[in-house]
Amino acid sequence: MQDQLQVIPGDQLLGIIIGTVFVFLGLAGCCIAAMRRRSGVRAILWLGIWSVMYGTRPLTDSLTAMARLPHWFRAGLPLLDTCFGYLIMVAASFAFLELTSGKLRLFLKAVICVGLAIAVAGIGFFILTGSENKLMPYNQLLSTCTLLVMLTVLVLPELSRRFLVLPNRGVLAAGTILFALEALFVNIARPFGYQPPAIWDTLGFAALLFSLGYVAMQRVFLNEHNLLSIEKELVIAREIQTSILPSTSPELGNLRIAAAYRPMTAVAGDFYDFIPVDENRIGFLVADVSGHGVPAALIAGMIKVALQSCMPFAHDPREVLRGLNHILSRQLHGHFVTACYLWLDTANRKALYSAAGHPPLLRWRGGKLERIESNGLLFGVNPEPDYPVCDMSIQQGDRFLLYTDGVVEPENATGDSFGDCKLEQVLRNNASHTPSEVVDQLLSEIQRWQPASTTQQDDITLIVIDAV
After folding, report:
1. Do residues 418 and 273 both lie within one domain?
2. Percent of the chain's residues with pLDDT above 70
3. Does pTM surpass 0.70?
């Protein structure tokens, strides 16, 4: 190895060292981007690709001159050098694109399109004619114009604030200015017969690359800090939302009750509550806010507050739903809410049910599943709707199921919904089980129904009530 290094000229050895360093740094940047996969890391990815392309060029120049390398290997290096020579401008534009906004972003997209067109044509010329630099002057002109535009934006604070998404532009401005001054000096010096050392070009590019890498990493860390803050706030929001839901199911002499609440995200738009009046009378409310996440969760919290004003007429489902709609309709701001309310009076063996655009109440009686629909308009459509009430008797052994559409809508690998038929099958197969066992079995069947790689698509709420 020592003998081989002694026969390599100094400029070739320097090119190998410089190229290897930039290729290594570029690959490291690509690995960081691949591992983190967070917002803003695409700038790191394109910087890595840019660095690899830049480092490959001096490597190919040095390796091409080494006669000891296999002929087939040296024969492919000019094509690689030509490809990277044309495409390096495109990679640089993609890196800057991730740090810009507005019209500057549109400008860089146009530059990328023109650069790709020049690259395709230039590489095609090389393959057909062997000419490596046929269109390189156009590529260099495009690079110069783009650099001048970026330099102008970076130097002028007003333009920076308008077109750049950077926490601090100073480092990037300094690196870009150093690179531009070096490029300007080289272009002026060459016509006068002076050839600056190649190391100057390397140092200028290194200044630009490291300044870009610095601001890109700074942006990534800032985004991650913001994401961590949001995640902490969501944890608090979930704790607050959980606190407004019933912590346990009420225990009544003639009823056995079990409930489940499975939000799709940290916070959910589903809501349920119990309104026990005495040992024999209780109301059940289930609601589903359109949409998901924080906006839906805030409205779900409003339902809890609105329900307090409906306590005096908890025995009347029509008035409960009308009261909720009256309070919420002015606060929904484009959202809608479905809801259902079931009132059970075991002393008088009487049940009352009404709903607002909600999936039907299911009653299991005597080995048969009945769908009970008594729907009015969902909340937020009409300020004064009417909600019809279904009056039913209660018999020993009756089982009632209230739920949101997240129970029946999950799809399997073939696109079939869980649906009412599958729901009826689970209830039939578990007719002798307790409400809590039925709830657990339903959740397990829903999970098995969906492909293992599929995440939960909607919030799930269900309540199972047995009359014993």
Report:
1. yes
2. 90
3. no
